[in-house]
Automatic annotation (TrEMBL):
It is found in: Cytoplasm. It holds the Pfam family OB_Dis3. SUPFAM superfamilies: Nucleic acid-binding proteins. Residues 107-182 form the CSD2 domain. Gene3D superfamilies: 2.40.50.700. This is DI3L2 exonuclease. Keywords: Cytoplasm, Exonuclease, Hydrolase, Magnesium, Metal-binding, Nuclease, RNA-binding. GO terms for molecular function: 3'-5'-RNA exonuclease activity; metal ion binding; poly(U) RNA binding. GO terms for biological process: miRNA catabolic process; mRNA catabolic process. InterPro entries: Dis3_CSD2 (IPR041505), NA-bd_OB-fold (IPR012340), RNR_Ribonuclease (IPR050180).
Length: 216
């Protein structure tokens, strides 16, 4: 295992396939082993042969190894804070296996952001005619929020929150981005609006302008 053999791979090797390459490597290793053994006998050396890359004896008990040879491992025991909003923009489509029980209960949500996993969403959250006319919603953007992801499942579980509109239009795309990043873009409350000047049109007072730098 400490010896690396660099083999020449050309078109002839490609024609004979991987088996030919494997046989070539096996023959080279046998020749190298025989050469090494003969050299050792000629020099009168017997015992354990060690290459330059060997730093010490082979041990199976990791407790006998030095710290520099160990790879530290760990596991997550608790999530202190969820940074992601668990919301994603994407498309819904029917499951591929139409004969499965899951097909009757769930649809597949595919996020636009490929860093987010695909999500099973209940058919009850989908439009009423989605099962009969799935092509109608192939370019429709939806917002989905992930609620769970079981350890034994390749896909997360979630709920459809709302339909945004056609993909490629500015308003649906913008609303999807803001929702994903948890930005509150709802209308200001009356309490907030009361903090604004009520006498319109409002102008900056001259004394205020005098102590400010005009960047208009």
């Amino acid at each position: 295992p400490d010896v690396i053999i660099e083999a020449q791979f050309d078109d002839n090797d490609a024609e004979h396939g991987q088996d030919h390459l494997q046989d070539t490597l096996t023959d080279d290793i046998k020749k190298l082993s025989l050469d090494t053994g003969e050299k050792g006998k000629a020099a009168g050396v017997t015992g354990v042969y060690r290459t330059k890359q060997d730093d010490g004896p082979k041990v199976n008990d990791p407790r006998l190894l030095l710290d520099e040879f160990l790879q530290r491992t760990a596991k997550v025991v608790y999530i202190l804070e969820k940074k992601h909003s668990r919301a994603a923009t994407g498309f819904i489509k029917l499951l591929a296996d139409r004969n499965s029980e899951l097909f009757k209960r769930c649809a597949m949500f595919s996020p636009v952001d490929h860093r987010v996993p695909r999500v099973y969403v209940p058919l009850a959250d989908c439009p009423p005619d989605f099962v009969t006319k799935p092509e109608t919603y192939s370019q429709m953007l939806f917002i989905c929020r992930i609620v769970d992801w079981k350890e034994d499942s390749n896909f997360a579980s979630g709920q459809l929150c709302k339909s945004l509109g056609q993909a490629g239009e500015i308003e649906p795309e913008s609303e999807g981005i803001l929702t994903e990043y948890g930005v509150d873009f709802s209308d200001f409350s009356p309490e907030v609006l009361e903090c604004l000047p009520q006498n319109l049109p409002w102008v900056i007072a001259p004394e205020e302008l005098a102590k400010r730098r005009d960047l208009r």
